[in-house]
């Protein structure tokens, strides 16, 4: 998976409209029932956090910096509120564009496990994605590139924590851990379930997904 792929990681403008069946996202099953034909995840960066009767986040996505995410979960979003911070990225599985009663549009969250807060900005998340595309052999063309020195070899050591990055030896691993930011990347990949997100077959829908994937 590549988080820059808009087919599976659309910005707000690319999300399906809940009032219209989008055939690129949904297919017709038995009778009049429609189900997703693929998986998708909406990423956006948190701009502001409000809580009155429920948690409401304002996020920026694509060219829009005022997308509203409102929580209609049993706890009105309190669990997410404890993790959310301005500048962090929110991930929402199978998000749709929703029309609120006040005439605004945004995303309505009803199931808490569809939401994950990732403690980095969107720019940082996409930069991490680019590193995974380059250094994780599952994502590339079969060649393994050392994250420490950029050498390409057929046999390398795998990071024991995140299993996404490979190294020539301990020296290269230490160099990447201290000098290339892998200390923080590794923690986020492991704690936020990003390894599963990178490994998931997004083109195949086999039931609704929640975090941790």
Automatic annotation (TrEMBL):
MYND-type domain location: 146-186
Keyword flag Isomerase: no
UniProt keyword Hydrolase, yes or no: no
Matches recorded under InterPro entries: Znf_MYND (IPR002893)
Source superkingdom: Eukaryota
GO terms for MF: zinc ion binding
Protein name: MYND-type domain-containing protein
Organism: Rhypophila decipiens
């Amino acid at each position: 998976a590549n988080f820059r792929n808009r087919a599976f990681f659309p910005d707000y403008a690319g999300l399906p409209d809940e009032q219209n069946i989008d055939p690129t996202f949904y297919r017709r099953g038995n009778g009049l029932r429609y189900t997703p034909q693929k998986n998708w995840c909406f990423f956006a960066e948190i701009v502001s956090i409000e809580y009155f009767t429920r948690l409401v986040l304002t996020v920026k996505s694509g060219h829009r910096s005022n997308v509203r995410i409102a929580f209609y979960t049993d706890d009105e979003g309190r669990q997410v509120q404890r993790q959310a911070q301005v500048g962090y990225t929110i991930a929402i599985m199978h998000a749709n564009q929703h029309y609120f009663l006040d005439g605004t549009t945004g995303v309505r969250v009803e199931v808490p496990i569809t939401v994950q807060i990732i403690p980095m900005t969107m720019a940082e998340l996409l930069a991490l994605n680019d590193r995974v595309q380059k250094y994780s052999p599952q994502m590339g063309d079969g060649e393994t590139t050392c994250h420490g020195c950029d050498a390409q070899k057929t046999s390398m050591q795998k990071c024991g924590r995140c299993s996404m990055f490979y190294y020539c030896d301990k020296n290269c691993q230490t160099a990447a851990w201290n000098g290339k930011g892998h200390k923080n990347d590794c923690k986020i990949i492991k704690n936020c379930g990003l390894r599963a997100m990178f490994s998931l077959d997004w083109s195949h829908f086999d039931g609704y997904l929640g975090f941790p994937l």
